Amino acid sequence: MKLLPALDSITEEEISETMRALSASKSQITILIAHRLSTIMHADTIYVLEQGNMIEKGKHEDLLAEKGLYYAMWRQQIGERKRKLLCKRTMTKGTEGSHDNNQ
Prior knowledge:
Blueprint: H1 9-24, E1 46-50, E2 53-58, H2 60-66, H3 69-102
Antiparallel strand pairs: 1-2
Helix pairs in contact: 2-3
């Protein structure tokens, strides 16, 4: 079941904060399965799977330093976020300019 991909970023962050708080107690094991790496970047251990096989394992910073599949996926997702932000900014500036012309 894919829950987080359908969520807006604010709701996703609220869920992520709740999961971090639950995991911080260290009184239980929490397993998160995510497509968005921002959801799991604070995990104690991240397992990267490819075609059912674990190919990488470690903390977020360590996996980025290895420059393997996790690194490639992180760069892709960060790039998509930046493009979306730029599009929103461009659209906002475009509508602001059209309001100015009407006055």
